[in-house]
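User: Last request for today: this protein with magnesium ion, please.
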Amino acid sequence: MALIVQKYGGTSVGDPQRILHVAEKVAAQRARGDRVVVVVSAMSGETDRLLALARSIAPRPDPRELDVLLATGEQVTIALLSLALDRIGCPARSYTGAQVQILTDSAFNKARIRGVDVERLRGDLEAGRVVVVAGFQGVDGDGRITTLGRGGSDTTAVAVAAALKADECQIYTDVDGVYTTDPRVVPQARRLQRITFEEMLEMASLGSKVLQIRSVEFAGKYNVPLRVLSTFQDGEGTLITYEDPDMEEVQISGIAFSRDEAKLTIVGVPDEPGVAYRILGPIGEANIEVDMIVQNVGADGTTDFTFTVHRNEYERALELLQRVAADLRARDVSGDPHIVKISLVGVGMRSHAGIASRMFQTLAREGINIRMISTSEIKISVVVDEKYLELGVRALHEAFELDREPAAGAG
Ligand code: ADP
Ligand code: ASP
Ligand code: MG
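Assistant: Here's the final one, the structure of the complex with magnesium ion:
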């Protein structure tokens, strides 16, 4: 008898028909003798609808009240799914995050889970009931409702699975696994049978929204077997797992991309100690996260400094930079909110040379100008103009033959 945590995303519970379908799947798992905990998202579009509703009243809603509002989306689905399970004769009980006691810190809208009290859940499971838990939400030490950031139900599922020491955490969604890249952009993308925690973490951090970053972090840290599967078709999905020697033979596992990027440049600042701090200090103090940074020293003893931020923060960052520029007597400040980031990810990069040059050659052949580059042990990222996103991703997918199954023994 296994203990399985299943998470169903927004599309999977998008209407009453689909909720009934999910109930059938859950009941079938239980009928095989397994104990099942289900974590659900809000019905698709609901979180966006609630956000828009809040913004129609307050352009920048108070974070505490926003969380009270956003958490209602998931409360609707836990009740509907429990009713659906009941209707087909499968005893079930629903819980909000606060009822379970999914304890978080107090960072409204992006809270981090501190602990999950599994006492009550265990009792239900022992009594033969399916437990249905609201994803994306928790409660802080003062009893205030919090949410975990967009896509946060994945993290709820993994945290519950870790706390219950579940045998597997299954993430059911509208694709049948993790693909070499987003199949909506590259139809030739191929489902991966396995991907390492490390690679999945990079993919998620670099823009692949199939799993929330924190869920992968959590799964790696607490050793939770994690699988991504389709709600709508049977199959093995993709297992997120530890690295084995076979996996190194594959050069590139996937391509991630992010449209949420913007770039800012300050030109002609004095090249002296403390300048980077004077430029980025105010940005950091404003809680704006900086991603890539490039600094170039010119012949005249001044330096140019370029960095990227989330596109939502562009206007604010530009304003701050203009102030810094005046202080530093910089020659110029410029910015571009129409850039994107494309990244190659793979643990095989550690043991294969020439991947970067092949990437640059491929982009050059397509006439795509690279504006920034950054690398780490298992990824290479480039910043390019927004209009080249699809072309770039498709060209790279083809150049690295990601549509082809690797040779036997290689992943
Ligand atoms: P859910 O609502 O079930 O949480 P999401 O929309 O959050 O679903 O995640 C699934 C989507 O992630 C897919 O529809 C797909 O377009 C997108 N996606 C992005 N990158 C990938 C990838 N590498 N593999 C699979 N899906 C991806
Ligand atoms: N409903 C939340 C969102 O849309 C959480 C989730 O679906 O995982 O982001
Ligand atoms: Mg999601």
